[in-house]
């Protein structure tokens, strides 16, 4: 890029987009379901029919590290 005032080249730094991987939870589905998630994306897990949420967080957000907030949920058979 050329600066219009003094015609020197300027290097622009574009930081990489932080992305979290999709984390599989047995006996649950995730919304939205995709392979990677951008920073600040929130996902919601839903336990399958005949399974109850017994621990962890059903709603998690991709943070800037990039890691998921909260604790991986567990769905156990009723």
TrEMBL record:
<dbReference type="InterPro" id="IPR000436">
    <property type="entry name" value="Sushi_SCR_CCP_dom"/>
</dbReference>
<protein>
    <recommendedName>
        <fullName>Sushi domain-containing protein</fullName>
    </recommendedName>
</protein>
<dbReference type="InterPro" id="IPR035976">
    <property type="entry name" value="Sushi/SCR/CCP_sf"/>
</dbReference>
<keyword id="KW-1015">Disulfide bond</keyword>
<keyword id="KW-0768">Sushi</keyword>
<dbReference type="Pfam" id="PF00084">
    <property type="entry name" value="Sushi"/>
</dbReference>
<feature type="domain" description="Sushi">
    <location>
        <begin position="18"/>
        <end position="77"/>
    </location>
</feature>
